[in-house]
Structures are given as structure tokens and as C-alpha cells.
Design goal:
- Helix content is about 50%, strand content about 5%.
- It has 29 helices and eleven strands.
- α19 runs parallel beside α26, α23 runs antiparallel to α25 and α25 packs antiparallel against α26.
- The longest helix is centred in the last third of the chain and has 34 residues.
Length: about 700
Amino acid sequence: MTGPGDADSVSGNSFHGPTAFQAGDHNTQNVHHHITHITQTAPAGSQAEDPLDATADELARAVGVQWQEEAGLRRLLEPAPLPVRWRVSERKVAGRIGGATAEGAARARFVALPGLAPVTRAQLRDGGGLAELHAVYGGLASGRLLVVGPPAAGKTAAAVLLLLDALAHRAAWTEPAERARVPVPVLLSLDGWNPAAETVTDWAADRLTRAYTLFHGRGGRTRARHLLEQGRISLFLDGLDEVTGALRGAMVSALDPAPFRLVVVSRAREAVLTARKARLGGALAVEILPVRPADAAGYLLNRLPSAPSPAWRELTGRLLTETGPLATALTGPLAVALLRDVYGDDGPVDELLDAARFPTPAAVENHLLDHAVAAAYTRRPGHPRPRYSAATAERTLRYVAARLAREDTRDLRWWHIPGWTGHRPRMIAVWIVSALVCGAPGMIMAWRLDPTPLIAVLGPLAAIGGGYAVARRVAELSVPQPLSSAGWRDIFTRETVLSGIAQWLVVGTALCWVVPLLRDRVPPYWLWYLITLPFGFTEVLVTGRGYDIVSRAPFLSVGSGRYAKVRESYARPSVVDTRSVGPRDVWRHHLGLRLFLGLLTGFALALYVGPLLAWAQSPLQGVLFGLTAVLWTGVASGLAGNLAAATALTAVQLHYEEGTPVRLVHFLEDARRRNLLRATGPVYQFRHARLQERLAGEGRPTGRGTGGER
């Protein structure tokens, strides 16, 4: 057996996009980045017996890339990070410790992971740090670990570091048989799970298929489910405290039979309330302890020059010798991190020692939160100039926080942004542009066919009416919509393509036989096969979950309601490499997919009549008809019904009404990279709930002041 001492690591991962997510947060720009991440390599000549071994190894690589980057953004991997300390919780959130360790029991639910010993009661008595927490995670007989603590205690940060330690432990085993016994840790948010409708295994398999490109395509969900059922994945579940009380209890009850290891992260208060109704069987609850003054002082000094300024020396010295509002505030990792970001090497940090200005820990924390955005968007030596000014960033984030507070949610779903402001201005703009751009070819074609005063009147009226119909579709997206899941692999499957080809050949051949029996002068056979191509294309879209693309296209919508009840989730980018998927990935994919298919649908409609018109009248008439069909159908199906396009249009409107950036989704991704937001699947959230509350409570400054944005 090969042990942990033979660990291999690989650097130089090439993937699409600047290092980025939320849980799952990489983008799709073709930029190469080099980061050190955790992976597994089998010895030369070895071959895994189980086909799932390669899948598990590749998932571990993708998860390692994702969370190494996320930990870097959170500055959890600096040379001297804040230490994680914990102890067994004394709160009433779990059962007896003996139920978790299974000491004296005939059989443990989970055997200890290779290289780790079973956890005992004595081992838990003194708590410990991150290394001891990993030993508990891998050696706990119940396989159920609760990580609790007060708000801003660093629970999620501890879970991320524990996940990275678990990946490192797995990577240390170069022998496939031993490595296969170590599950791949995956961190997911519990948001969106309805335990009454699906088991935790089904839900997690679905989330994995959406979060990692490894599980896209044929058989991906089945592979994810098999990994879960065999315990080859351990789930780190965050956000239990962010769901309603009744749902929390249902989730905890539904987690009990899960066939894999669990780490559940929650605020202590919500965990106690949930435990009154439902407890996770055999769970061990550990509580993240406050930061010690010595640890906070050492952490702050490590980022300063060897000879700190007098202000910093006074502050760190007072931390070690006195208690007060500042020392109490800095027992939380959030306040320590904010203090480090807000004040530079020569900043007046000693002002926080003024008890008259900052009489309470809350006053200290509020002061730091109020300067967090400006600090994130202040140019630092050796770093590129921020793309947005601090004023623009703060104004935008205050507006976003106020919107989320109004909706009583922490989730910023970009496809709900079209409902943030009145739709009338963008509706009018789309109406005018559509009538002018799309209507012009049709009016020219009609005038060439029949140059009469009636056509001169009806042509513009038809263009105005068509523009209004397109504008109405834009207005409809102001109401919150589900995000369609139709992707390339969902639509163009082998079965749908074969079905489309069969329908095209049947219809084209039938016309070649029937039409000559009814008319003397008929087009050549190849023309019939050309103009019947749309029948096959329509069949592909309708049977392959592209029904909503053609649902309002003339002549193409027949039968498009047959699959209207297909289950929706959200769009998935096509597989290029194995990586996590973030909000901007989904936005870009949705925009490109719908636009392309909309134009393709317009081309299909053009084929219905365009070639015949060119044969019977003139090539120019056929081209004008085709151009009219492509423009109108492309706009109606690819842009007007496109949530990503509606979001982009709303961002332009918000820029003029609220002073937010024109490229709002790009700004949100930039804010995530500056550690103000985080991503969970296709959803953005504020990194800290307290930051969101503070920004929402202060109100929005007046005036646009858009300097600094691009």
C-alpha cells in the first residue's frame, strides 16, 4: 500500500476564464491561469478496476481547482492565516457523543478513512485545530459532523479549509484501491432542495450535473448518482440556517438515511431551533471558537512591514494587554479580515481605540463594514487599476442589497433583474428598433411585389405591429421566470437528430411524389428537399426540449406544446473541460444559445418560402423574404424571449436610472473576485450577511457619478 508520504501534486491547470464562482464559479474566457491545485495520479502502468475511479479522480481535480481559487479569494491560504479552533458544542443540537463515535457498538456506520483512526470520546475532549477537525471528519463512525457557531464566526471558512485538507488526504494515496476508499468532498448550498419532492441523493446528483461539466452529457447524472450511492462523495452542506424553520427540520430528517458522509454548516441559534424538531442521527456538533487576541495580533502583523507604523504597534499591543470594544469585535474572523483590508500599512488604524467614537464592538464592526467596498476598490501597488470606481461599486452594491432586502432573500438571481425596474422604457426602445431594422426588408419586398398605395400603408403598419409583438415579449420577462435548462446536449441528442432527419426525408419525398401529380410545372426535386428541411429542424427542437424557441414562430410552432411540461432547471454550458459552473457562465451560455437557435429558427422559416419565391419570382425576392424571416424570427425567438438579453437590456436601463454599470453581470463577477460577493450555482450572494444588511440599511446615495467604470 502506498501511503500519504507519496503524494503527487500538479500545477499549471489550464481552464476557461479568469480564476473565479460561489461554489462553482469559473467563467468561460479563454485565458490560461496557473494555480497549484490538488489532483491524483496513478502510477504508470496501473489501471483502475472500477470505471468510477477515473470519474472520482477527475471530480476531485475540479473541486480542488474550484476551492483552491475560492480560498485564495478569501485569503485563507496566506502564509500565516488565522488558525481554526473548535470544541465539541455544549448546545443542544445533537445527540450523545457515544452515538457519533459508536464506542462499544457492534458496528460503525462508516469505517475510518485510510490513514486515520476511529474517533474516540477522549480524542474529542480537548477540541483542537484544523488537523484535529480533519481527523474527526475522517474517523467519525457516524459520518455525520455539524459545524456550528455564531454569525461571522468563520464556519464556512473552516468548512472550505477542511474540504481542502480532505482533498489533500485523498491525493496522498497513489494506490487506486486506497484512494477509492477516500470520498471526494463537495461543498453545496442547501438552497433549492425540497426534501418532500426528492431524496438528498437525487437532489445532490442533480446539483452535481449542473455544477460540474464532468457530469454533463449522456449518463452524467447516472455517474453522479452512483458515486453518491457508493459513498464515493462526501457532501459539505452550507446554508441550513438560511432556509425557513419548517424546511430546516424536514431537511435534517431527510439527511439521516444518506449513504455518504455529511458535514453540515449552520449558525448555532438556527441549529438549536431545528434540533427541537429534528436531529441528525449520530451527528457530532463542533463549535468554531472565537479568534484569540494573540492570533488576531499575529495575523495583522504578518501582513505589515517588519517595522510597523506607530498606529499599528499601538493597536496590536493593546489587543494583547487590554480588553475592550475593539478586542471583542476582533474575536470574529470577519472583523479581522475587514480591518486588514480597510487600513493600509500607514492608515490611522489607532482611531479604533477611541472609546468615545467606538463604544461597542458593533460600532467597530459597522465602521469596518461601511468602508469595506471602498477598500475593495482602492488600487493597490502591484495590482491593476480597478475597472470600477469605489463610488460606482458602493452605489451599485447598495442598490442590489436594497433590492434583495425588499425581496427578503440573500440570493441574487440574475434572471430576476428584469423585474427590478419598470419595463416600459426598454419595451419602447425594442419596439422602435425592431420595427425599423426588421421591418425594412419586408417593406421593400412587398413594394417590389405590388408597388401600390395600399402596400405603402400596410407595410409600415405591419412593421409597427411586429415590433410591438416583439416588445410585448420583452415586457413579459419582467415577471420572475424559471431559467430554462435547454442546452446543446439537451436539444441535439442522437435520438432527436435522427428523428428530425427521418421527418425531413419523409416529407420531402412525399412532396416529390405528390406535387407532380397535381401540377405540370414544378420545381426540381432538390428544391423540395431544401424547403422541407425546416420540418426536420422543428422536429429536433420540439422533441429535444427546444420547444420554447419555436413556440411563437409562425408555421414552426405546430406541436411545440407537446413537451411543455418538461422539467426545467437552468442552462448548462457545453463540456470543454471539467470545471465548476458559475453565474456568468450560465448567463453567457443562455445568451449565446438562445441567440444562435433563434437565428437558426429564422433561417428555417426562410426556407419554407424563400427558395420557392426565388424560383417563381426572382432571386432578390427570395433573399428579401429570407432576410425578413431571419430578422423577425431571430429577434422574437432569440432576443425578445431571452432572459440573458433581457437582463442586459435592464442593466442599460438601470445605468441611466440608478447609475449602476452598463455591464452589470460583469460587475457582479468583479465584486465576487474582490471578495464582496460569492457564487452558489447560478446565484450570487453577498459574502457576509452583515455586509448585505449594512448596505441595505444605509440607503442609496443620490447622484450617478459613474466615473471609473468601463
